[in-house]
Amino acid sequence: MSQIFFDEMYDPNGQVRPHYREFARWLAETPEETLAQRRREADLLFHRAGITFTLYGDEQGTERLIPFDIIPRSIPASEWWVVEKGCIQRVKALNLFLADLYHDQRIIKAGVIPADQVLANEQYQLAMQGLDLHRGIYSHISGVDLVRDGDGTFYVLEDNLRTPSGVSYMLEDRKMMMRLFPELFSAQRVLPIDHYPNLLLDTLKSSSPLDNPSVVVMTPGRFNSAYFEHAFLAREMGVELVEGADMFVRDDKVFMRTTDGPQPVDVIYRRLDDAFLDPLAFNPDSMLGVPGLLSAYRAGNVVLANAIGTGVADDKSVYPFVTDMIRFYLDEEPILKNVPTWQCRKPEELSHVLAHLPELVVKETQGSGGYGMLVGPAATREEIDTFRARLKAKPHAYIAQPTLSLSTCPTFVESGIAPRHIDLRPFVLSGRETRVVPGGLTRVALREGSLVVNSSQGGGTKDTWVVED
Amino acid sequence: MLSRTASDLYWMSRYLERAENMARMLDVSYSLSMMPQDGRDGLDEIAMPLLITGTLEDYLGRHGQMHAERMLDFFALAADNPVSIYSCLGAARASAHAVRGRITADMWENINASWLEIRGIAQQGLNRYGMSRFCEWLKERSHLFRGATYGTIMRNDAFRFIRLGTFIERADNTLRLLDARYEMMSIKALDSVDDESAWSYYQWSALLRALSSFEAYTEVYRDAPAARPVAELLLLRADVPRSLRACTDEINRILSVLPGINGRPAQRRVAEMDARLRYTGIDEILEAGLHEWLNAFIASIRELGAAIHTSYLEVV
């Protein structure tokens, strides 16, 4: 299988791209021993700082480091502004879509998206029907996953509108790079991202009609895989990190239990799924939520960020319609492209998919984290057969896409420096305005040839630079 | 502050202080066990930390007989002993992990590094690492954490609950160490009442060193350590940082500035304890019987701990 990859650092002639020149010079000049020593230092610092994640399915709940690679992923500012505009456009349309979906459903009436596609979706929350949210914003914090194909074009792989994570790694990776290699940052101007927590707090505050609302971060607890990030963000914003048991609802108002008695809670940046928020309304077995929270929410006494029911818009079966949403709501042409997608629920598309399984990537419409997907070119015959059976049994649960030749970036591996595939997740904040800090989380698939960048599947991270050209 | 957060901060520092105190106990007993003994290979001494912490029975249940190396390991590094130094440090780190958003990065990194290091030490084994080195290491880590805390955290309720945990634990520990050493002395010394003997000197000075109060003692009394002045120093001197009086002083001050009216029972309790120490003399205490007096006070501290719990840490 011959594929041409777009490499972030080198052009097809093997020349260093202009925005990587400073870095390449530095890399060539720095002795290998120094690099190795700094890499060890980075590992040690990450370990000491406990910047770890917990792997699900690992009985011992071992905390692991996400491998950090010291070669940054660099994007020229001119290219970045397009990506940024594209992400903002997309998230605006998605928020309008959610508001529409839970009110008049104009987009369905206009025949742009079939009703059963959204209304029969498990993620569609009846409880949200007709509820007015402040500023009409549903997804306050969104993560847009982007990849580059062989010719360097950015494609949106998926939108994350529930509880997108990884922003702490974006911030910590930058901190680490500045600590280990300050000289790199004086040699060229890398746009800053450290003010993200500030923007986040501003976004959360502006999601409430109150002047100075009391904001909290809600975590499922310290055994959650992203607990580090929850604590990190609470600390950076200077707000309380609460668990469900720390809060209670009285007269449709939310309070937290403090040493000084009950204190009101106005905005909850919640980092747990809809189903666990309120045992009275959703999963009755959930110990993580707050009984009565939904009722307080519906009474307009508390803001949840993100809102309940955003999952219907980032579902992979709704993904193919996002470009149409942009045209429908904003009357604009989409700036960022969607990956062509076959919807297996349509019989003619299913038969195409079944005929081309070895070339395609098949995903569960509701899966995430790289679990439950098939990467055709990398799969064994047995794996393909298993998926074929699954597709036939539940076609509506899957979509398929061509295998993208994700761009590569030079990365430290055991044998030295070698190209590895990467993606990019910028974080879009929607409040008074819609904003993105210049950069995002770059994930890298450390196994040679692998296209799966998820940390749960052995992916690492890189610092992401937007450099002025 | 969230009650759960307050509780985690309080227990974080209690467990860390406990780990430090246990290292201090271990240090005294280990060094005394190497003194010339009357034929018991210092086993009584080595069993003492287990006796003080109430874990001797648990140890005997698991390992049968007294065995110096096994007892030391059980007390210091056994992961299956829920009150070993290792387990205490693990519990302190788990509490810190739960509130890492409320402590500074310096504090978290410090306690996390201690935890990673003790796991390394446990893998090596105490013998290879060295007993005294281990005790020194632990004290140093505790000092470092305290330094990081004092040097970096805001002077708010978080800081107060951290200190509250420290002083409750420390008060309890000082009482228990003094009681244990006094019991050990009285068994031997009652018939001879021989405070002058070398043996007695080592006993008292080891206790003072364990509580980092040896220098204070010599400065205040300029004399060889003996029961009465040692008890006076460790119970009633407000200027000795590990003394009971210093601890209740701090606890009293902290509780009086915590917000809310929930805390009144705890505030009253500690104010009473503080007054009791302020307006008593060592002779009065010895007259009552040191052992009885100490045990009554240990019970008071336990009640104070319970009052703090209901007042602040489990508020509904």
UniProtKB/TrEMBL annotation, chain A:
Domain of life: Bacteria
InterPro entries: ATP-dep_Glu-Cys_Ligase-2 (IPR051680), CP_ATPgrasp_2 (IPR025841), UCP005522 (IPR016450)
Domain annotation Circularly permuted ATP-grasp type: ranges: 72-445
Annotated protein name in UniProt: Circularly permuted type 2 ATP-grasp protein
From TrEMBL, chain B:
InterPro entries, alphabetized: ATP-dep_Glu-Cys_Ligase-2, DUF403
Recorded superkingdom: Bacteria
TM region positions: none
Domain DUF403: 1-313
Identification of the protein by name: Alpha-E domain-containing protein
